[in-house]
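A quick aside before the break. I want you to see a complete sequence-to-structure record at least once, exactly as it would be stored in a machine-readable document. Don't worry about memorizing anything.
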Amino acid sequence: MRIEKLNENKIRIFLNLEDLKEKNIDLHTFMSSSLESQDLFLDMLSIAETEVGFKTHNYKLIIEALASSDGNFILTITRIKPELSLQTSSNLKKPQVKRKSITPNKLLSIYVFNTFDEFCEFCNYVNTSSLSKYISKLKSSSLVLFKNKYYLVLNNLKLSVTDLKTFSYTISEFASRVRNEELLEKKLKEYGKVIIAKNAITTCLKYFSGT
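That is the input. The structure line, written in tokens, reads:
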């Protein structure tokens, strides 16, 4: 984690998946309003106060959170001075977090599900939502069991950039995206057990719908 002070009332915090791992927080938990993510945020504010003198007590905060395709997270935190917040409270909006899902790589993306049921829930959700149009474009997909977790391997995604972002945001509600895809793919081929060799989502819907 790295903290950069932009000015007296604004800082930027840089995080990566390793930072989350140290706190035992996965991507889904971090992007949600969970107690764990709130505790992590409070820890970051405490560190920011110690390292760069950024105090937040009695300040209103505006938070912007962005995630990039390389697994890094950038949080920009702006504090509103107490006297300003009192004078213009009627004109200020409540703090909002702008979230941008991590866009998968078109050539290779891998997502890990904790259980097979979670994978089936994802497939059923996609099939019954407006995202069903993506299913036919995800044929180059397989499901592999490795160390008691289920990995959805997606190759050559036939999606536009906009559709990629939508798909990525949706699947992040059910699974976590894995970094170092090429290295992991080799491990899965060598040590993993193939559950569904191709058309993983379509096959799941055909044989396991309602699981």
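Two observations worth writing down. The helical segments are 17-22, 27-31, 35-52, 82-87, 116-127, 161-171, 181-191, 200-208. The longest helix spans residues 35-52. We'll return to this after the break.
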